[in-house]
């Protein structure tokens, strides 16, 4: 199964869970450049749970538009778990969403500031807190890395929804 197919499946699963739990989602994307939002909005009825997204590709956009701490960007660079956490937390606030999902990483073709191609940090923010997940994807073309990263971010979102909001039957 291709990352694109997996991404579409994960978007549908996320949509089902967000709707079931009455939650809304906002996205902040760097590495994926809008692919997460594209996958989410390809699901019929997405307007019921998806409130919007921001593509903050440039470091200056992460701080100036989204509100990521400039000191963190200077000290850790734009590809770091803390930047992913802050992106997720800020996009959640900006859009007034229940959940924020963020991606930052390296699509290639070369490393960036010591981070290898395929490095991905996913940020997830909700009422329970904010966390970052660091993953290393396959080597491949920019398109392959970005498709994998969008799918991986949605997989992490689905996992968070299931861990946090699924209620065990009595």
UniProtKB/TrEMBL annotation:
SUPFAM superfamilies, per database record: CinA-like
UniProt-listed InterPro entries: CinA-like_C, CinA_C
Domain spans labelled CinA C-terminal: 14-158
Protein name: Competence damage-inducible protein A
Top-level lineage group: Bacteria
Organism: Phytohabitans houttuyneae
Signal sequence segment: none
């Amino acid at each position: 199964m291709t990352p694109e197919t997996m991404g579409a499946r994960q978007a549908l699963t996320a949509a089902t869970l967000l709707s079931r739990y009455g939650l809304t989602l906002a996205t902040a994307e760097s590495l994926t450049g809008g692919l997460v939002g594209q996958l989410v909005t390809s699901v019929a009825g997405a307007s019921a749970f998806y409130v919007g997204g921001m593509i903050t590709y440039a470091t200056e956009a992460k701080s100036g538009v989204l509100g990521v701490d400039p000191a963190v960007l200077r000290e850790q660079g734009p590809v770091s778990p803390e930047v992913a956490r802050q992106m997720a937390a800020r996009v959640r606030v900006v859009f007034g969403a229940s959940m924020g999902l963020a991606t930052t990483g390296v699509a290639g073709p070369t490393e960036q500031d010591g981070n290898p191609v395929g490095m991905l940090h996913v940020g997830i923010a909700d009422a329970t807190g904010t966390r970052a997940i660091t993953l290393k994807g396959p080597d491949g073309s920019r398109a392959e890395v970005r498709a994998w990263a969008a799918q991986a971010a949605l997989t992490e979102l689905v996992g968070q929804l299931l861990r946090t909001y699924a209620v065990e039957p009595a």
